[in-house]
Amino acid sequence: xxxxxxxxxxxxxxxxxxxxxxxxxxxxxxxxxxxxxxxxxxxxxxxxxxxxxxxxxxxxxxxxxxxxxxxxxxxxxxxxxxxxxxxxxxxxxxxxxxxxxxxxxxxxxxxxxxxxxxxxxxxxxxxxxxxxxxxxxxxxxxxxxxxxxxxxxxxxxxxxxxxxxxxxxxxxxxxxxxxxxxxxxxxxxxxxxxxxxxxxxxxxxxxxxxxxx
Length: 213
Prior knowledge:
This protein is an alpha+beta fold. It has a single domain (7-207), classed as Glutamine Phosphoribosylpyrophosphate, subunit 1, domain 1 (4-Layer Sandwich). The chain has helices at residues 53-63, 68-77, 127-137, 143-156, 192-207, and strands at 7-13, 18-25, 35-38, 42-48, 85-91, 96-100, 109-113, 116-120, 166-172, 181-186.
């Protein structure tokens, strides 16, 4: 199954050790395949012609002490279809790795910013990842809010060329208790990023909010 037409970001908040992933795409249930996260370990988005192993195995390698670059290289080395993949990774130390295969559909590319990496393919243009990085950098809010702002910025300039129908936002603090985690997924909706924002705001009201994220 492919997740072509996807735009995403992995990021961290050094002050709290929180890690997060946000993503939107033009196919259903993106939250079940693209974003992968583990508290105190790392955050990964695997897209393009999606191979979930980059998320599952990538987190295992990060947990074993591999840097994101070494972990990504190890996974790419044994993947015959690597040119169809797009993968971004960040570990708890803020080290990053990014790969955009030459066979992923244009516009395609990734952008490394301070404490974040944005990536996408089958997009309206480079402005999607550029606006995402700018929105993330321009906010002093908690990580979850900054990722939500980044996703909204990418969607606002066009995002997926086909239009998005699913989205997700995952954030994990340095602890694993529920109040230190956020897992929101819109499986199919005509305005998935707007729906994700609605869920996000409701979550803040019902659970209370913590700056630990």
